[in-house]
Specification:
The chain folds into 2 domains: 58 residues; 116 residues. The chain is mainly α. The longest helix has 48 residues. The radius of gyration is 27 Å and the shape is elongated. It is built from 8 helices and no strands.
Length: 195
């Protein structure tokens, strides 16, 4: 007859690697703490991030700092409007708290801000160009509707499914082009972070 193991023996076998799991759980929690620090910073931009990071014991500090940096990188995205642009610009002091090479950081960050401003400009220009292209079609549809109904109805290109589809396709292409450059900028920031 085979050996029958007690419940305690089975439990001990299953928890043999708990120490490793505990360390990864602590690392995860420390990184989450870094993300919470960013949330507090966004609510209170006067917060001294360097001082906050120094308040953690050395063992935790690197992981908290990493969590903060990861959250910062996650916030470098293509903005949809000026408010999104301002939010990204407001992150610069937080990057300075986790990256020591300020000169290179400022150069890269200035490039990112310039790139994102250009993206917003190109995005707006694309929308306006498409609207102008579809204006003629909308006038034709208005005339057609007026003939059919006897009433003049004003149509906007944004109400046209064809316009919406063309806009989505063109915006998607624009986003893909800029996303590649943003990914490169994130890689540069990652190499500057160095730890």
């Amino acid at each position: 007859m085979g050996e029958i193991k007690s419940a305690l023996e089975l439990a001990l076998e299953r928890t043999a690697d708990v120490q490793g799991d505990r360390e990864s759980l602590e690392a995860h929690e420390n990184k989450q703490e870094g993300k919470r620090i960013l949330s507090r910073f966004l609510e209170d931009p006067e917060m001294d991030l360097k001082k906050t990071l120094k308040s953690y014991e050395r063992k935790r500090r690197d992981q908290v700092r990493r969590g903060l940096f990861d959250a910062l990188l996650g916030n470098i995205t293509l903005p949809s409007d000026q408010q999104g642009m301002q939010r990204i610009q407001s992150l610069a002091p937080a990057f300075e708290a986790v990256i020591e090479d300020r000169k290179t950081l400022n150069q890269i960050y200035d490039q990112i801000v310039q790139l994102l401003s250009q993206y917003l400009s190109d995005r707006q220009q694309l929308i306006e160009q498409l609207r102008q292209q579809y204006e003629g079609r909308m006038r034709q549809k208005e005339d057609e509707l007026a003939r059919q109904t006897g009433q003049r109805i004003r149509l906007d290109p944004s109400q046209d499914p064809e316009f919406s589809q063309a806009l989505q396709q063109n915006l998607q292409q624009l986003q893909q082009q800029y996303s590649q450059v943003i990914d490169q900028a994130r890689e540069q920031l990652e190499s500057l972070y160095g730890g």
